[in-house]
Amino acid sequence: MSSSTVKICFNSECTDRKSERLRKGWRTRSGDCVELCDRCGSLYDEGRFCETFHLNASGWRGCKSCGKRVHCGCIASIHSFTLLDTGGIECIPCARKNVVLTPNPAWPPHFFLPLPERLKDPVKNWSQSQPVGPWRASNLFNNSIPQSDLRPRMPSEADLSTGVDRLIVSERSSASSMEKKKIEDSSERSMNGGLKLGALEMLENGNSGTNCEEQPASCVNIPQQSSSLNDDHSAPLLSLAVPYASSSETNGQTVVSGTLSQPTPSPPLAKKFSGHPHNGVDSSGEAQVRNGRPRGDARGRNQLLPRYWPRITDQELQQISGDSNSVITPLFEKMLSASDAGRIGRLVLPKKCAEAYFPAISQPEGLPLKVQDAKGHEWIFQFRFWPNNNSRMYVLEGVTPCIQSMQLQAGDTVTFSRLEPEGKLVMGFRKASTAPSSDQGNETIKTGNGGSTHGDVSIRKTKTGEVALTNRHLKSNLGSPSFSSMDQADLADPASAWSKVDKSGYIAKEALGAKSSIPRKRKNSTLGSKSKRLRIENEDLIELKLTWEEAQGLLRPPPNHVPNVVVIEGYEFEEYEEPPIIGKPTIFATDDMGEKIQWAQCEDCFKWRKLPADVCLSSRWTCSENSWDPERSSCSATQEITAEQLEDLLPTSKTGMTCLKQILGFSFSQ
DNA sequence: ATACTGCATGATCGG
DNA sequence: CGATCATGCAGTATT
């Protein structure tokens, strides 16, 4: 096999520093290179998102600006795939240069894409790609950016073979500008004694004496807010998600801008738009995830942490909406902590979520909030807050019956959505065992263990167990000392990887330094001291920086695998169902007969031996194990290939192999 | 004695 | 380093 094939995986030309990290992404070309997933940071079998993503959105494209080949599935990820429908993509560095948008802090930098010409024609450009529901929301940009210039790209349905989004585009979303304003004002309202009431507040609190369900119009926001919106130049652009949207908030004047012109790409959205063959439910039986995004606060402070981004599955949506034509606006989700799920009946709400999506409250007593569960039952919780330091701590009280009704436990996730046009607040849930891939979900998948966890201790135990399991898995496969100190838990932590995608823009995450969002005990951590952990992680990081290229060379398709062959732009990719294993570094090549082979070096004599391409060797492989060539199953046998020839085989990968040589003590002599 | 309530504490995380 | 939030805990209410 030629050296070029060794290096074809991924965007090796990418100059972005992050590309120097360990590449993740479970993809191979001609079986010579396997990577971990860039998007979720997990092994393939854990990165279901990636599975879908890759099948539909990946491939190689030429950067529109510099011509470099960029992989639009993983590394360039959102950046690239969101540009697919423009007929071209840009590599990260170019895209970065071209970014003219002022990012909303609620969004990771890579969501702010260069402005393509086509965006100046929203009708043309988005006519095929407007599955933008109100849930895809946000005030992505600050006020200073002209609306026409503020259009983050989404992958078109055509490009991504998307399915139809049940979260239909709704003109109602245009009203979100008003809602945005409400959000902006909410905290102040709270602080200032609640001069105004959000729609929900009016709805649930009865302060307005109206019920949105009956009189939607009455739930429209307060006059001065509405009027002020016209002056809020940020409003028309963004406002996709409607905090308290109701049908009454339809405003013909703002219809187009928000919904059609402001699709807001998000990593999770890739799933949403992916036209996976198993649309709705992937091959694993897992429901397709719809990931809403936080409505960004215009002041940039209401951004939600990724772990609160709603990741609602089709099943959940179906469950919530039933047969109605209601539009569901996922608001946020939260994994239940032990105390949330405990008998105390208090569900701590993330502050930003509470302030963004729940009615503003000025008094600690708060107000009763009517919430409908997925079964249609209505619950009334007390939405209130406690003064906490100089801040607030928002809680929903009285959730125990509901929690019990849904048989939720710590580690499970509750989701809050809004049902439009009713304006109902809907509380869904996701058992840990069925959680989708997400920064929470992937962990919960693993913690779920087919059932659910049992409180915080169990979670912690499970978490630990998961790590241990992962460690076992990796230890059994890791053949390189370069990986021996890797934070394996991180590798198995697509969750945090995901969040890193969000932040960094490209690579999922540092393989190290992952932070779990799973609830866990703060004290008596089984992970040891933080300082120690950090120290280890830093050491690992250095090591990984050195070895990401060779790390790819170490990754091998699992034995007996049957890859799905995907041809993308003329390049043949093999995708594997099983996670890669890491074996002895070898050099893949093609022999004179055109057969794929690999060259492996004996650990004892350092001679290189020709082996079948599909074998995986132990890290201490020696000539004596060369059962494929009995004549060279001894160190005394001569080497078939010269050092020069070997060097020629080292690609682009010379550097990597040099590193390997240095790190692993390999020798190319002979 | 138990349950509830409200606040305080401190671990964790993000900027 | 400040903000967030999970949880501890003291005080109070209820059984």
Automatic annotation (TrEMBL):
Renumbered residue ranges of the record's region Disordered: 173-192, 272-301, 432-458
SMART domains (UniProt xref): B3 (SM01019)
Composition skew (Basic and acidic residues), residue ranges: 178-188
Native source organism of the sequence: Vitis rotundifolia
GO biological process, one term: regulation of DNA-templated transcription
InterPro entries: B3_DNA-bd, DNA-bd_pseudobarrel_sf, Zfn_VAL1-3_N, Znf_CW
Keywords: DNA-binding, Metal-binding, Nucleus, Transcription, Transcription regulation, Zinc, Zinc-finger
Gene Ontology molecular function, alphabetical: DNA binding; zinc ion binding
Keyword Transcription regulation among UniProt keywords: yes
Main subcellular localisation: nucleus
Bias (Polar residues) ranges: 434-447
CW-type domain ranges (all copies): 593-643
SUPFAM superfamilies recorded: DNA-binding pseudobarrel domain
Domain called TF-B3: residue spans: 332-433
GO CC terms, sorted: nucleus
Protein name according to UniProt: B3 domain-containing protein Os07g0563300-like
Subcellular location: Nucleus
The organism's taxonomic lineage, starting at the top: Eukaryota, Viridiplantae, Streptophyta, Embryophyta, Tracheophyta
